[in-house]
Design brief:
The chain is an alpha/beta fold. Helix content is 44%, strand content 11%. Strands 2-3-1-4-5 form a five-stranded parallel beta sheet, with helices on both faces.
């Protein structure tokens, strides 16, 4: 599945600046409507190390009211989280709509079928069972009226290496690069297999995946905003925005579709 993704897509700086602001402002309007309608938007970010999740989230939230959203940076469970079922720590982070309308997960419950699978942190029986558990979990969230949007930020191995080297040579970015990042690169094929299985097994009508072509960061940022505007607008009864163009006019995550690329 990932092998068919066209990573050559990009935007000029002029297109990027214009479309980014347009979708940011539209998302801010929709976030207010989420508050009015007492709905919650749950956004899941998964992707390769160095794929640009943090920068993408920064642009997504740039124009939002900070009182209305929360970002959860997910790492390995520790303390009380580690003593419960792996989904427990995500349940407890959900907020009532009068508190937060937009909940953003920088990595998520999909760690069970990605890093935990590849690194052997759970048994094969556990990660195979997790596909069903996750689908049921997401159906429950949708049943409570939550809107789920899931992004896989995809980049090529060459682009990842370029970004790693850029981080290493940039003092204020060097902290982002760890030995674990380099180690994970050696397991690229194992992770790719796990990602393909995840996309195939957990892209549902309730919560489809959108693959975001990420070699061009500008394109990736605009695409995620565009998808969010379309999905949230449709869920709240608003009209669809105009096509993005550049071959991605149909990249929005239609609620009845499977993986959207």
């Amino acid at each position: 599945m990932l092998d068919t993704v066209d990573l050559r897509k990009g935007l000029t700086r002029e297109e990027y600046v214009r479309r980014l602001l347009r979708y940011q402002l539209r998302l801010r309007e929709l976030a207010y409507q989420l508050y009015v309608q007492r709905r919650i938007l749950v956004i899941v970010y998964e992707g390769w190390d160095g794929a640009g999740k943090g920068g993408n989230i920064k642009r997504l939230t740039e124009k939002l009211d900070p009182r209305g959203y929360e970002v959860f940076a997910i790492s390995a469970p520790t303390g009380e989280d580690a003593t419960h079922h792996y989904l427990w720590r995500f349940w407890r982070r959900l907020r009532p709509p009068e508190e937060k309308q937009v909940l953003i997960f920088d990595r998520s419950w999909y760690g069970r079928v990605l890093v935990e699978r590849v690194e052997g942190f759970c048994t094969e029986e556990e990660w195979r069972r997790a596909y069903r558990e996750i689908n049921e979990f997401e159906r429950h969230l949708a049943g409570f009226g939550m809107i789920l949007v899931k992004f896989w930020l995809h980049i090529s191995p060459d682009e990842q290496l370029r970004r790693f080297e850029a981080r290493r040579s940039t003092p204020y970015k060097a902290w982002k690069l760890t030995e674990e990042d380099w180690r994970n690169r050696t397991k690229w094929d194992l992770y790719k297999e796990a990602v393909n299985d995840m996309l195939l097994r957990t892209s549902t009508a309730t919560a489809p995946w959108t693959i975001v072509e990420g070699d061009d960061k500008w394109f990736a940022r605009v695409k995620t905003l565009r998808v969010l505007v379309d999905v949230v607008g449709r869920e709240l009864g608003h009209q669809r925005s105009e096509p993005l163009g550049l071959g991605v006019a149909t990249e929005g995550a239609a609620r009845g579709s499977s993986v959207a690329a």
